[in-house]
UniProtKB/TrEMBL annotation:
GO terms for biological process: cytoplasmic translation; ribosomal large subunit assembly. Residues 114-183 form the Large ribosomal subunit protein uL10-like insertion domain. It comes from Cucumis melo var. makuwa. Belongs to the universal ribosomal protein uL10 family. Ribosomal protein P0 is the functional equivalent of E.coli protein L10. GO terms for molecular function: large ribosomal subunit rRNA binding; structural constituent of ribosome. Residues 293-320 are annotated as: Disordered. The lineage of its organism: Eukaryota, Viridiplantae, Streptophyta, Embryophyta, Tracheophyta. Keywords: Ribonucleoprotein, Ribosomal protein. This is 60S acidic ribosomal protein P0.
Amino acid sequence: MAIKPTKAEKKVAYDSKLCQLLDEYSQVLVVAADNVGSNQLQNIRKGLRGDSIVLMGKNTMMKRSVRIHSEQTGNKAYLNLLPLLVGNVGLIFTKGDLKEVSEEVAKYKVGAPARVGLVAPIDVIVPPGNTGLDPSQTSFFQVLNIPTKINKGTVEIITPVELIKKGDKVGSSEAALLAKLGIRPFSYGLVVLSVYDNGSVFSPQVLDLTEDDLLEKFALGVSMVTSLSLAISYPTLAAAPHMLINAYKNLLAVAVATDYSFPEAEKVKEYLADPSKFAVAVAVSAADSGSAPEAAAAVEEKKEEPAEESDDDMGFSLFD
């Protein structure tokens, strides 16, 4: 018969395992394990097997092991885990992609009935329709002010009803009604609360950011830097092109308003002296951009109009 290890031996083994995982893994997901059963947790372990390890334990024991290991190794980054070990939490050590691991964990949620005294994590709405209950069960609906009618010998709910609001405790009447209707409104599983990555701690919402989101935020930051640089006339890489363009516009304005000129301003003065050239320039640019047939047709029409007037003049005889 095998001798069972003592509590002290279990603590030593747990401390050794946690320290080994801290040395081996640099990424940790801190997860909440409220209302998660042992069978469900075992399925999660199987699903993550390969590059991730789930470790549960008492918060005091985990904090003690982390603190001692940090002192022994001199790695103060481990201490960032201590504020996260609050409540019924566990640790998932992983070498895989954090987003993929968190998505895999989210798959293992199971439905649960509404138990009396439980705080509702979501709103519970009873849908309309036939309940299959006999008319003697209408007392449950009357207590909860749910409008019903008798249809073909069974109770039918007329309109959808918000039975329980998020954050409210489940009462005995609500729990009994949901049980009779066979509704399991809640689902539970490991919920990622925080992410630890090489000493840095951040929210799991960061994992949902895409490359487009990052580019959008980067572009917003660049625009803010550009605006600030232009406002205080401080040259930066982002603001330099705008500064050069603005300076060029100022030079053109001076050249147009005075007799001073330079090669780049000659063309602008030429267009201002003869505005009809603007139309020709537009037609040429339209032709270059792929709308050549339309531009050519427009130019052809303009050319044909004087010809038609000339033909009309020639149609009159001097002797008429």
